[in-house]
Design brief:
The protein is mostly helical. It has one domain. Helix content is about 55%, strand content about 5%. The protein has eleven helices and five strands, in the order βααβββααβααααααα. A hairpin with a 6-residue loop joins β3 and β4. α3 crosses α5, α3 crosses α10 and α5 packs across α7. The longest helix is centred in the N-terminal third of the chain and has 31 residues. It is globular. InterPro entries: Peptidase_U49_Lit_pept.
Length: about 325
């Protein structure tokens, strides 16, 4: 555990004895499972009931291999949640990029302006690396390519001097994965029996299942906020960046059996009842701007509005 106190040099988390997989994201697989199992204080008991009474599989499959991104799901037959290694890599890369762009382009310049001095000098190198990593993440949607851990930001191998730009995204990433797992868990205990019954389900029924899975997942996670609220912000950001990661697959937000992606994002933010000046509004704007630039959607942006006002204005533009 010497890396905790390391200030300089390379930090290398990879241990071939405990880390399975081919991609640098492998070093966080165990943390994902631990975080999910401890979603809130009583969740281990809830899981035990789900295993015994609802037939939820005790195993979460991680599909390893050099494959393009495939999203998470739960198998109808055996109620086993499935995550794909490339998807997890994609998710981390997206979260890192959104966070670093937000910090370097939005948050730090605000602090400089507020204090009237350059507390944080411009950091073009890390900004360029974040933008490059976002491009790599998008490429995984189309075809697999190797994540170059020697030159690109990643959670396995990084300089101690840059640890905040890696370990903060790690925190948001594990919360985003928790949100995904809680979403699939809800399907497992509430919806798969209906799907297995052979009953005819209208498209609106599938959409309602997805809305309920999102809502229940958020409720489960908010139950895990500590009394001192030290983990509240990572949970809130993790949920939002997890949903933002769904935008980059296509230029539209329509889906047959899912709510529109912008509706899922709005529902989540409103369910969390965030204050008007919360960081999440700005982070959501960064995520939506990346989507805008990716597909040339030509949204109208302004500095005349607050982040919250701009967010809802963008949602309106998406719907139009």
């Amino acid at each position: 555990m010497n890396w905790i106190f390391q200030n300089t040099g390379l930090i290398n988390h990879y241990n071939p004895k405990i880390h399975s997989g081919n991609q640098p994201i492998r070093v966080l697989h165990h943390m994902n499972l631990w975080m999910f199992q401890n979603t809130h204080p009583n969740f281990p008991n809830e899981l035990a009931i789900a295993f015994d009474k609802n037939g939820l599989s005790k195993t979460i499959d991680i599909v390893f291999g050099e494959n393009k991104v495939q999203g998470p799901f739960i198998r109808v037959q055996n109620k086993r949640i499935v995550l794909q290694e490339s998807f997890l890599s994609y998710l981390w890369c997206v979260i890192h990029s959104i966070y670093v762009i937000y910090i370097l382009k939005i948050e730090q310049p605000k602090i400089n302006q507020r204090t009237g001095k350059e507390v944080y000098p411009k950091n073009e190198e890390d900004l360029e690396k974040a933008e490059e990593l976002f491009n790599y993440a998008k490429s995984l949607i189309v075809a697999y390519s190797e994540w170059n851990k020697n030159s690109q930001p990643n959670p396995e191998l990084y300089l101690a001097q840059k640890r905040d730009l890696i370990e903060q995204p790690n925190c948001f990433y594990t919360e985003a994965v928790k949100f995904i797992l809680c979403h699939e868990y809800t399907h497992g205990i509430k919806h798969l029996e209906i799907l297995n019954s052979g009953s005819e389900i209208e498209l609106s029924g599938y959409i309602n299942f997805e809305r309920e899975a999102d809502s229940d997942a958020i409720d489960l996670m908010l139950k895990g906020v500590f009394p001192n609220k030290i983990n509240e912000l990572p949970i809130q950001i993790g949920i939002v960046v997890g949903l933002l990661s769904m935008f980059y697959f296509k230029a539209t937000t329509d889906a047959k059996k899912h709510p529109k992606t912008e509706d899922r994002l709005v529902d989540a933010i409103e369910q969390m009842e965030l204050p008007d000046n919360h960081d999440v509004w700005g982070i959501a704007l960064v995520g939506l701007r990346l989507w805008d630039e990716q597909f040339g959607l030509d949204f109208k942006w302004t500095i005349e509005k607050t982040d919250k006002e701009q967010f809802y204005d963008l949602i309106k533009q998406i719907k139009e």
